[in-house]
């Protein structure tokens, strides 16, 4: 197993361990991550790993599972508080996420089901920070350099959106509350991921 694949395996194991701390709330994510981990563990090289991922090389299944778990949990929370209108909105979100087949659909279809409930500022920051983390990881699963550059560009764009929501945010914020609760990376892993993007873009964040 080469270094790139080893890094993926390390990340996946850390992520699964965190998810299993609350398995009821993370059912879909655990299944998605364990499937990817199974592929990584049986791959002898980075190229074989990405080839075996096939159409899921951008880890869309993982992003989709995260959305589904989040909306299902919020739906159940609102149900417990007797807030049926809000529960119905999150049930709709879960339904839409289940039917999405790509990141583009997650980006364009989900907002259509969100208009009934205004997201508070904290949730916006958390959701955006999770998206940046996902993009950081995805860059290293793509073999094609031009696609890596496109993903790096997208990562910077989403990072700047996060900076607008939280002007004091930096990558170091992922090691401080509340963001550290979402971050599966060590500092050395994070530094390598950021350096990879800066190398692809030819500029610093």
Give your account of this protein's structure.
The protein is mainly alpha-helical. The chain has nine helices and no strands. The longest helix is centred in the middle third of the chain and has 21 residues, at 60-80. The mean pLDDT is 84.
Summarize the structure.
The protein is mostly helical.
Relevant terms:
mainly alpha; 205 residues; 68% helix
Radius of gyration: 17 Å
Q: Structural class per helix/strand content?
A: mainly alpha
Global geometry: globular
Percentage of β-strand residues: under 5%
User: What's the number of helices?
Assistant: 9
Helix and strand arrangement:
Elements: H1 3-19, H2 27-41, H3 46-53, H4 60-80, H5 84-99, H6 103-109, H7 121-139, H8 145-165, H9 187-201
